[in-house]
Amino acid sequence: MRRILLDNITPGMKLAKPLYSADGMILLNAGIELKDRFIGRLRELDVTYIYIEDELTDDIDIPDVINEKTRIESIVSAKNIIEGVKVGKSVDADQAKKVANLLVDELCRNHGTLVSFIDMRTQNDYLFGHSVNVCVLAIMTGLSLGYDELRLRDLGVGALLHDIGKTKLSAELLNKTGRLTNDEIQEIKKHPYLGFEILRKNPDISLVSAHCAFQHHERYDGSGYPRAFKGSDIHQFAHIVAIADVYDALTSDATYRKAMPVYEAVAIISKAAGSYFDADLVSKFTENIAIYPIGSVVRLNNNQLGVVVDISRDSKTKPVVRIIMDENKRHMNKLLEIDLSKNPRLYIADVVER
Question: Which domain holds residue 37?
């Protein structure tokens, strides 16, 4: 399978992975042939890209650091927690801990797998998928730091609930597509404090988890908010969640911009090491990211197009690429894979399907 932008879908393509709602319901199932009405439905849902099957890539399996069932269950739980708070309920700490425990257990088993799979997410379900992704990325960073299970679980709960304060802001403000006014920016900046107040009042949630909500917009150099804390004044959990939060935001569609490819997001975060983010934590975070995820369509410097089929931690910028189109834009009729780590003259010039 390979990833393809919604704009490049044509009738007759087959969906390789099912698309779910945040309620865990299948919106479109794997194996379905994409006819015009289904493509129209994907546009209505504001899906950025999907995974498709084709003859040259049907044997490519895109690994996820958590399995599909775990991801769906976690997103459903995140939605239940967030929607509950929206209507005045207290945070369901048991459900949050269950999600954190589930993810910690699975990520511990899969430790060493690079993040390649990017979940297919509708715009309406952004916050729920974002919360789970930030949780996954934060726990993986904690594993790289050698955290024990107790710390991983507290980090996981805090990461999952880091944006809970947004439940107190209007949907109109959160979904605004135009430029925000100064007053609206100040209103948005209230969500870390609002989230902290929600979490710290819950006796079943640790104070360190609550600080993930409070401090995830603080920056290493003191340029963040709400308190302009800097360096070691910011809890390490919040430092980690801040990096994961920005990474997932950069690689996801937003109301005001399109998602950027992983390599650009990693470059931005790496450039901010030592200013916005703790440099050591950036290093630990990025070591788990596949810069060119499996299933990505890339252009080599010789103008051949290919799909990334394998990655090594030791040479993440030089993956194995299966060529699907030659330098003259002719489709390949035979299997050709190139290990870029063994071909120093070849390199990835651009990511075609982001």
Answer: 2-53
